[in-house]
Amino acid sequence: MASSNSTESGTHSHGRCTGPRMYCYHNEVAPLRVKTCGFFKWTHEVQNVDDLQYMVLEKDTALIELEHEKKTLKKEVEELKAENEKLEDMVAELSIENTETRLFMEATMADKKLAVALIVSWVFFAFVFFLI
Question: What's the predicted TM-score (pTM) here?
Fold first, then answer.
């Protein structure tokens, strides 16, 4: 009994090379299977191998295009991440500046309130002084 992986040299059939033959565990030649649309077809059911080879070529081309698109998108994601980091840094800086400005404005408002209170007290003092 031969193992399921045993092969023998290819033979010529109808002027074409059939390639190495695979044998099953019963020591019989195993037919080649081609996967199409989720099901397997036996090679004698396949009418045009050239069409299948063309389909494989189209799939390979589509895979290459998708891999290129994936690389492009990865590069774009990295660029967007870098841009995001820059924007986050700018937001942090603006937040600090905003806080500093708010504190300055609060201090200025306190100074204005103090100045108004001082002026009111002088006017009151002057009024009392002139009445006496």
Answer: 0.41
